[in-house]
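Notes from the pairing session

We agreed to fold both candidates in a single pass and log them together. This is the raw record for the first candidate, unedited. Please don't reformat it; downstream parsing expects exactly this layout.

Candidate A
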Amino acid sequence: MNHLLLIHTGGTIAMSQSGTGHVEPSDVNPIDATLPKATDIAKITTKHFSNIPSPHMTPVKMLELAQFIQHELTQDTYDGVVITHGTDTLEETAYFLQITLGAPVPIVLTGAMRSSNEVGSDGEFNLITALRVAKSEAARGKGVLVVFNGEIHSAFNVTKTHTSSVDTFKSVHFGNVGMVTKDHVLIYSQPATRQPKMIPSISKRVAVLKVVAGMEPDLLESVMTLGYDGLVLEVLGQGNVPPTLLPALERLVEEIPVVIVSRCFNGIVQDVYGYDGGGKQLKEMGIIFSNGLNSQKARLRLLVELESGSSQSVMEHSFSFQQ
């Protein structure tokens, strides 16, 4: 029988609704009551890494989780790993594990939008399907996966799209890579992956700012004043900014790496427009163009590159479209 490692980190899947109607953490993880229903799937070893709401997750904790998984995989023979996680930052943890953890077995994240005692709770279904994916041969070599509502997504592409729907996780660029039916785990596309970079610690800081019409340049200047090591900028359309930002951007690029992503949820940034503030000018400045990552994932990618001491050319390559 397959042997799976189940790691709990907290989140709604580990919470219950109180008498006042508020969803709160439980001292005993209620999702563990599901495990007797999974005995025909695999032998399951459960580890409680943390019990925190996902807004409490940080890059430092993500690194600790990656190191924890790395250690556990040396202590026993596992055929896959499932991580339960809160949904607000689940995509960030999944992507961080993708770019740092070179695990030889499937790594699958899942969670719940409704707590254990709410009507229509989805935690049990999501956990069972995640366990099935983690033990499947189809999931091997596919990178870190997110399994939710019967769909399988790559960590690179998946994002939370709805504040409360159980169908919240979607892969906006390329669609989900697979699905889980009653009888089968089907993965019908191969997520592109790169060699991960495990880092020893996190000491750098990367800011994220969203560009809006008439944005004031002093917001960009504050990034340097506050001592950030990098900046991810959500720009307009295919890669454009108001021209008033150009002087501040020129000064920033001389000091720290600046990565741009589009504030559109579909598509990539390109150096198409040649007017003041257009992508052509930004490219000529030395700004790094991303490959369709959203800003929260681009922040993590830049953070890992900074911690690795990567050069500008290596950083540019790491954000190229083949991911």
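Candidate B (folded immediately after A)
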Amino acid sequence: MSDDSLRDRIDTSKPHSARFWNYFVGGKDNYEVDREIGDQIKSIFPGLVDVAVTSRRFLGRAVEYLAGEQGVRQFLDVGTGLPTADNTHEVAQRVAPDARIVYVDNDPIVLAHANALLTSTKEGRTAYLDADLYDPEAVLKAAAGTLDLSRPVGLMILNTLGHVADHEQARELVRRLMAGLPAGSHLVISDSTATSEGMIAASEAYNASGAVPYHVRTVAEIAGFFEGLELVEPGVVRVPEWRPETSGDAGSGAAVDAYCGVGRKP
């Protein structure tokens, strides 16, 4: 795709979730419209910054666990977002240089920065797919060009499923993705939750900004994504409370309105 056609697809007149999140984690790939709604939401609910930061740390811990303790050497990261520090491939390949990672997003702003995600160790490999969460079978077929889908895969869906308004549809999309992966694969999910008035107000303000809406869910709904899987201890918990020892998140989970979990396909 040419740079001109990419630019034509990027709307800088409205906030964008990837750029908005990038602003919250200290990145530079955002526009004034994203910073304006970000500052507005900070004034409503400053805790959303903690959600962004601790969710990013959870990604690192989850990948380290899968690559280090479970021997997973393949990762499918759906809803990649904008590259920052410690992306999935960087964490995985620090633990296992031969790890292979496929990133998936269908957003032009992410595609424009995809080259930053395509670095790799010489032993491993990374790839980027311009593909859609709403077509899981096409995602899996394209990912098979890089990953061996007869071997376990770590499926990462972080801060993405809120874009699917209907919870049952979101569950079905997750089921279809996991159905194409073998036993021993793992599902990793984190998302913001409707667990405080502040988070609910922040979500409403964001959705009223003209951005593509993002829906916060209950903890029970987050847990529902893991139906049929074996939950890894400590189960579905606030993101700072999932094996926090390695990232300094221990004890910081009380005020964070985001939950996560890791489940193994038996």
